[in-house]
Design goal:
Layout: H1 2-14, H2 44-53, H3 56-60, H4 79-97, H5 101-110, H6 119-129, H7 138-149, H8 163-171, H9 185-188, H10 194-202, H11 213-236, H12 249-261, H13 267-297, H14 302-307, H15 317-335, H16 338-360, H17 367-370, H18 378-390, H19 394-404
Length: about 425
């Protein structure tokens, strides 16, 4: 046992792969809803990752908003570049903790498939439009995409992903049900989305248990990625300055470290040094805290991770506090910046106009979306319209609005960027 632990430690230090007993084993997968022949060259989780990358929904992330509408600058993150950053961090966590890297990557790549055009603005608007019909949630929409809406394969709708991938997609933020069956606090007010309950009736995802460790790692990778890159984008856009970050003790410490090591460093390099240090500190913290929790739990299999009473892959209390403080800063100084809010207002108008028009006149949608809606009830029509709009890119939504309405809001807003270079000289 001691030799095994020593070898594992050496592998971790060299960045090599190793598989822990508590990792999700692709050889022991619970399989797919529709059985398929085993691939001779890829594990089920590798196949899932590849199917996600080749999906139409994944390609559309290229022109979907993260914070800035994609045409506001070539160097700001889009939903696709955010997803790729999450994937890289998830793989790093998985490798260090002995998890299945392919499953962690598949979950990172799929976690935002259900996001609408115009980022959270589009989601909030669609949720309001769908209030009488079950609302709209991007996690539930991602499940709809990979189980129903993608139509590429001859033998099934969706991507027919493995049980473990679907479980992680639905539960990466934690269980949806308490042990006695009532919704967890997050879902108490509005209820669990119907799309999740409907699929769960076909293929039990164990909504009262935690997801496997790879899903937990992907969820933290999401937090780490957008903390880092939203700080980077916000600084480069001139929404706040480096001196403003002193409001956050964790960031102030990193900036002091950079100034000590690199006095008089130019602003663009200092921004990058800050972003990379945020990622490094957070990743190292997750590895250390998760190792501590794993040692305390002593899981012998992935089932022990799922049955735990708390996440096993997690931030320490200190870094969880830093994460919350960074998010509070970004909410006040970036997501609620007047320029960002002005674009949100215009995007809200585009989405709400499209929803109203298509629900009143389903034939205004392409034939493949309006087919079969003659005589359908309001709920069915509304859900079909929500599926159609949610799949739109920012560009497509704006063009659809121009086709149907006499005036369309101008979404252009060019952040000042404080004169910082966004590309290599």
């Amino acid at each position: 046992m001691q030799a095994d632990e020593t070898g594992r430690g050496e592998a971790r230090r060299r960045g090599e792969r190793w598989r822990a007993a508590y990792a999700t084993d692709p050889a022991a997968t619970r399989g797919r809803l529709i059985p398929e022949a085993i691939s001779p060259t890829r594990s089920d989780f590798q196949r899932d990752r590849d199917r996600i990358i080749h999906s139409s929904a994944f390609r559309r992330l290229k022109h979907k908003t993260q914070v800035f509408v994609h045409h506001e600058g070539d160097h700001y993150r889009t939903r696709l570049t955010h997803t790729l950053e999450v994937s890289q961090i998830a793989r790093a966590l998985a490798r260090a903790l002995g998890l299945d890297e392919d499953l962690a990557e598949a979950l990172a790549l799929s976690h935002d498939l259900g996001h609408t055009c115009f980022g959270h603005t589009g989601e909030d608007t669609l949720d309001a439009c769908m209030a009488a019909h079950g609302g709209f949630d991007h996690n539930a929409q991602a499940l709809r995409l990979v189980t129903r809406l993608e139509r590429r394969y001859a033998g099934f709708d969706g991507l027919n992903l493995a049980w473990e991938t679907l479980e992680g997609l639905v539960k990466h933020n934690g269980p949806l049900l308490e042990s006695e069956g009532r919704p967890t606090p997050r879902w108490t007010a509005r209820g669990i989305p119907a799309a999740i309950l409907e699929y769960n009736a076909l293929n039990d995802l164990e909504l009262a248990r935690f997801a496997g460790p790879e899903a937990q790692a992907a969820a933290l990778a999401d937090d780490i990625a957008y903390d880092s890159h939203d700080l980077d984008d916000g600084l480069r856009a001139g929404l706040f300055d480096l001196s403003d970050l002193a409001e956050v003790p964790f960031l102030r410490g990193l900036l002091d470290e950079i100034d000590r090591l690199y006095p008089n460093l130019e602003a663009s390099r200092k921004i990058h040094e800050l972003a990379r240090r945020v990622i490094t500190r957070f990743v190292e913290d997750v590895i250390a805290e998760s190792t501590r929790r794993i040692a305390a739990l002593d899981p012998r299999s992935v089932a022990d991770i799922r049955a735990a009473r708390a996440p096993v892959i997690a931030f320490s209390e200190a870094i969880a506090r830093a994460d919350a403080e960074i998010k509070a800063f970004l909410f006040a100084r970036m997501y609620r910046h007047p320029g960002v809010l002005a674009v949100r207002e215009k995007a809200n108008l585009i989405v709400s106009d499209l929803f109203a028009r298509f629900t009143a006149e389903p034939g205004a949608m392409p034939d493949e979306w309006s087919e079969g809606l003659a005589g359908a009830g309001e709920g069915r029509i509304a859900r079909r319209v929500a599926d159609y709009i949610a799949g739109m890119t920012d560009t497509y939504a704006a063009l659809a609005h121009k086709r149907l309405f006499t005036t369309t809001p101008d979404l252009l807003w060019h952040p000042s960027s404080r004169g910082l270079p966004l590309a290599e000289p």
